[in-house]
């Protein structure tokens, strides 16, 4: 699975591509959870509306800092391998 961070001026972009792991299948429940999280991040202004929530390629645009981009990238990677807990911590349904 390909995960990348790219700097865009002061902001960051996260890319994940499942085509680089053809033997890996993302479960429908996992995909739905990732999509809901991306939608929530867009609604709360944490990523730009042009972000793409999969199902093969995931792109989160305009993340405000490198640490936040790294946190979200790691959580996305874990989620795509079936562990949704890091994603739930990184982007909770109800922010603390």
Account of the protein in words:
This protein has 96 residues and is an alpha+beta fold. Helices cover 39% and strands 24% of the residues. The protein has three helices and four strands. It has helices at residues 28-43, 66-80, 85-90; strands at residues 2-8, 11-17, 52-53, 57-63. Strands 1-2-4-3 form a four-stranded antiparallel beta sheet. The longest helix is centred in the middle third of the chain and has 16 residues, at 28-43. It is globular and about 35 Å long. The termini are far apart. The model has no long low-confidence stretch (mean pLDDT 90).
* Strand percentage: 15-25%
Per DSSP, the total helix count is 3
Helix content: 25-40%
SSE pattern, N- to C-terminal: EEHEEHH
Low-confidence stretches: none
**How big is the Rg?**
12 Å
The largest sheet, given as strand count, sense and whether it forms a barrel, is: 4 strands, antiparallel
Mean pLDDT: 90
Separation of the first and last Cα atoms: 31 Å
Number of strands: 4
Cα shape: globular
Give the structural class. alpha+beta
Q: Largest sheet, order of strands side by side?
A: 1-2-4-3
């Amino acid at each position: 699975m390909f995960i990348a961070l790219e700097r865009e001026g002061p902001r960051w972009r996260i890319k994940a591509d499942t085509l680089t792991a053809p033997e890996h299948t993302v479960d429908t429940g996992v995909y739905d959870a990732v999509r809901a999280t991306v939608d929530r991040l867009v609604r709360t202004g944490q990523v730009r509306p042009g972000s793409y929530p999969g199902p093969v390629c995931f792109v989160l645009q305009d993340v405000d800092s490198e640490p936040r981009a790294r946190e979200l990238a790691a959580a996305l990677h874990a989620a795509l391998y079936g562990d949704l807990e890091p994603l739930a911590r990184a982007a909770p349904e109800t922010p603390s």
